[in-house]
Amino acid sequence: MMKRIWVAMIVVLGYSCGSDDSSDYVPVNPYTNISATFGSAVNPDNLYNYANQTIPNYITKDNSGGNPITDKGATLGRVLFYDKDLSSNNTISCSSCHQQANAFSDTQVASTGVNGTTGRHSMRLINTRFANETRFFWNERAVNLETQTTMPIKDHGEMGFSGTNGDADFSALLTKLSAIGYYKELFQWVYGSEEITEAKIQLALAQFVRSIQSFDSKYDIGRAQVANDAQPFPNFTNQENQGKNLFLAPPVFDGNGNRTSGGLGCAGCHAAPEFDINPNSGNNGIIGVLNGTGIDVGNTRAPSLRDLVKLDGTTNGPMMHTGVITTLQAAVGHYGTINIAPGNTNLDAKLRPNGFGQQLHLTAPEVNAVIAFLRTLSGTNVYTDPKWSNPFPN
After folding, report:
1. What is the C-alpha to C-alpha distance for residues 242 and 278, in angstroms, rounded to an integer?
2. Mean pLDDT, the chain, whole residue set
3. Where is the Cytochrome c domain positioned along the sequence (predicted)?
4. Which of 8, 23, 155, 355 stands 20 to 30 A from 101 (CA)?
């Protein structure tokens, strides 16, 4: 009886059966498949810092809710984000439409999916954690980021596990992922169980997306040196400070919607220092559609204005849900003259003072100053940091 117990102990401890020589010890590696697939890109014993990144003290918003970022969870989310196995034909991942090199957006107006193209331009994923607005997609159809993460997977055109139009349903994806060795190890490591569920996928993907942050811009350097945004930033040029003032100050209108004084009022929808969208915003006057005919007045969500462009001024892809805006000059110009289109019942009230579409009567120096300020909102690290990069070998 004692012999059987001793043999069992030897097996549990990882020794070679039939020998009591400690030199025969064979360590058990619970991450064999992770190591074989990702090499040093994903090392469970040496994780990237996702949970405790530096956040400026003037950033006060945090919509993580009941799903705080953990190093383990975000690591799993990173793998899921870049894995083409999450699409029905193994050709599309979340990163196909949200590319790190472009502030996690796409340079194409409509992104390519497994059965066509997306219905709207792919939104940039910068500082999604730091916003009052917790709903997602341009039309806010997802109640939170967790819900949003699996909706593209279940879309027929995008990733193809819709359960319609001949697609397999989401349960088929769960079965598919459950047969992959590195997911067995990753889910066991993160959740204490190999079982893969939609809720676990949502939690991990949301943690990874919320971890993507950008606070190394010229704006952030200046903001750290003053008490509030209204003060001149010592590292800004006169033009950049002028643009900041125009961005922050509300306009003063006459009875016909013409600006007579004041700024441009951009902060009314994109408040500093997060520069995300106000949850109570209506649409911004762009109501076109990418596919088909008609109008689309339900788009009221927008990404943060951070990293609209790269540091050199190169755009991170077209802007707005239709991708119709391709330069900062065009973006500022759009708000300069708002025409209320027939059928647009959802235009933001701030863009129709006294019932008229706003006429800001922008001057060239004002446009150039606001553009100069918007460019100060771009950082550098978010484009190259390996913790947000593709962990799969090329």
Report:
1. 23
2. 93
3. 72-181, 238-378
4. 155
